[in-house]
Amino acid sequence: MRFTEIPSGYLNIMGYVDCSEVNGPGCRAVVWVQGCARECPGCFNPDSWPFEINQLIAVDTLAKNILSNPRNTGVTFSGGEPFWQAPALAALARQVNYAQQTEIIPNQLGKPTATLTLCWVFQCFMAVHFVVF
């Protein structure tokens, strides 16, 4: 898949859960993005590796879904590799803009490499916490 196939303002996701208590503190929405080139041994979500269109969802729609649950205390971006779709996730983070926490779970190789896009994404989050396994 080429990233140009994902329309602007959309995310290509593997899945979405409205309220999870195992993917970060409290009840939180979880967005699993589709696509990862890392292929880490022991990956928990190898079905998320292929760079193919799985579920296209508008960032605006996903933000409304997340905000519609009053129990949500935050959102967790997982995958696949969230940073392959960093601009769309940054737009989602800006719309949700929780005073609570946003979790980014890095791959098994450690913290994601800092890039200009990644630094820009971090600026959009009110709090970013890395969970290292």
From TrEMBL:
**GO molecular function annotation:** 4 iron, 4 sulfur cluster binding; metal ion binding; ribonucleoside-diphosphate reductase activity, thioredoxin disulfide as acceptor
Q: Which domain of life is it from?
A: Bacteria
Q: Identify the cofactor(s).
A: [4Fe-4S] cluster
Q: Supply the InterPro entries for this chain.
A: Aldolase_TIM (IPR013785), Organic_radical-activating (IPR034457), rSAM (IPR007197)
Which of UniProt's keywords are assigned here?
4Fe-4S, Iron, Iron-sulfur, Metal-binding, S-adenosyl-L-methionine
- Keyword set includes Iron-sulfur: yes
| Full protein name | NrdG, anaerobic ribonucleoside-triphosphate reductase activating protein
